Amino acid sequence: MARVAFVTGGIGGIGTAICTRLVHDGFTVVANHHPSECEIAEAWKKDRAAEGITIDTYSADVSSFEDTGRMIAEIVAAHGPIEVLVNCAGITRDTTFKKMQPAQWNAVINVNLNSVFNVTRQVWDGMLERGYGRIVNISSVNGQRGQFGQTNYSAAKAGMHGFTMALAQEGAAKGITVNTISPGYVETAMTLAMDDKVRNSIIGGIPMRRMAQPAEIASAVAFLAADANGYVTGANIPVNGGLFMH
Ligand code: CAA
Q: Which of 103, 130, 161, 226 is 20 to 30 Å from 97 by CA-CA measure?
């Protein structure tokens, strides 16, 4: 039986590439989207079907523990236990700290960081019982180096890797790996939302002089999700075109 892989934010720019790659690698893939995106998700499913790929989508606000719990129970009832979890849901509310309001801070911490607790907590016990699991947290180069205008986002993304390192220790002797991927700037709606001037100046500072393609992030996820790569845990894999090296 194919292992079930669940991707939060699965219909987004990076999420879509992750879902399609994991299907090609033989997983049964289930994608989450926000409740406000039901129509987009239906169209997304049709697009995937046209590519010959079947991916079920489930709506839930992953910043809510209760709503996430409801969704996970539905997924497990329909598809069986989740053995691969990719925490990919994320948003930006960029602004200088001087202008940042509590709503902008809280939205980013809730969606980007608290969601990681909300989802992982609800698949963890099953992974422990079965003695198998792969958890991949999609962080960001900006969690590693900070970014002007992103105190909220950088804090959440840095927090994700702290979570990864701590949980990796709890899962290490139980067959569960927990890892972070820190993408650089990726060609998606999120980076397109930036002002042209800001975006071009960022690209100019990337040693490879280009943004990543979503498939280049998905390829790193596929590596960490594979049965064969059970000895990598607590790692933070940068996929950033050389933007940050350490
Ligand atoms: N370092 C130091 N100073 C900077 C700076 C930087 N990186 N960027 C701008 N400044 C300075 C400017 O020169 C300007 O100085 P003066 O007031 O002296 O002229 C001042 O800061 C204000 O700059 P802006 O005009 O940019 O301010 P703004 O309020 O119009 O915009 C902002 C602020 C929205 C945060 C804008 O700077 C911005 O969009 N920055 C990019 C943020 C970013 O990288 N977001 C990533 C989104 S994609 C993503 O998050 C995915 C991922 O994981 C990588």
A: 161
